[in-house]
Amino acid sequence: MPRQTRVKICGLRDVAALQAAVDAGAAYVGLVFFPKSPRNVTIAEAATLALAVPAGVAKVALVVDADNALLDEITAHVPLDILQLHGHETPERVSEIRARYGLPVMKAVGVADESDLAALDSYARVADQILVDAKPPKDADLPGGNGLSFDWRLIAGRRWPVPWMLAGGLTPQTVGEAIALTGATQVDVSSGVESTPGVKDAALIAAFCTAAQAD
Ligand SMILES: O=C(O)c1ccccc1N[C@@H]1O[C@H](COP(=O)(O)O)[C@@H](O)[C@H]1O
Questions:
Q1: Ligand 1, atom 16: nearest CA belongs to which residue?
Q2: Could you confirm whether 133 is annotated as catalytic?
Q3: Rounded to an integer, what distance in angstroms lies between the CA atom of residue 107 and that of residue 62?
Q4: Cα–Cα 20 to 30 A to 131, which of 147, 148, 155, 206?
Q5: Keyword set for this entry (predicted)?
Q6: Alpha carbon of 155 to those of 36, 39, 96: distances in Å?
Q7: Between vectors from CA 16 to CA 7 and to CA 129, what angle results, nearest 5°?
């Protein structure tokens, strides 16, 4: 029987790519609000894209250490289902954002070695979901979306009291092994379904979703 893995396709910038994600069966679509990213969208672009998302597919806004002014703007103009916090937001800030906007919050935590695992437990106490991502290199321009993976054995068999998603360098070729090793039931991808940074490839999106759902 095929796996029921829920897939998030992140960093969508145009309706064609968004439609490719929806057609491939993505459960979540991600819009990046981070000017340094090649996947950044303006609030107006995001509002247009959000209109093309059918009911049942969750619209996720990815922000990095966003202040209230930016979050106020985004949430006022873009219909959203989830806020993804991908910066250095503290557990207190996660709680504050949840309360202020009344939206579920998914907190990304970077993992490189054992010492990073405690943070997952801390954030699992305050966030609605946690996103287990590769820790970016110190000199990286982006805190995520670098196409880098981490040693999946670090989280093999680990579970948290909230839903969690695996991210970091996943591709159509590697996602099956990553799921088998970690037991993830949700996976997130950005660079692994692109032809060049910021440009999504419909065939890679379809291949990723198929591979994530295969036995
Ligand atoms: O995708 C981006 O540009 C990005 C920018 C800033 C923070 C996070 C970003 N992406 C997220 O990073 C992970 C892993 O991405 P990848 O598959 O390794 O490219 C994923 O959660 C993206 O949503």
A1: 145
A2: yes
A3: 10
A4: 206
A5: Amino-acid biosynthesis, Aromatic amino acid biosynthesis, Isomerase, Tryptophan biosynthesis
A6: 30, 28, 28
A7: 25
**Which of 7, 10, 83, 150 to probe ligand 1 with, by most ligand atoms within 8 A of CB?**
10
Is the predicted ipTM greater than 0.95, yes or no? Answer: yes
1 has pLDDT over 70: no
Q: Where are the domains of the chain?
A: 6-213
Which residues, including other chains, have CB under 8 Å from residue 145's CB and lie 6 or more apart?
10, 11, 32, 37, 39, 190, 191
Cα–Cα distance list, 120 to 9, 41, 197 (Å): 22, 28, 28
Give residue-wise pLDDT tens across range 85-141.
999 999 999 999 999 999 999 999 999 999 999 999 999 999 999 999 999 998 998
Hey, which residues does 28 pair with through a beta bridge?
8, 58
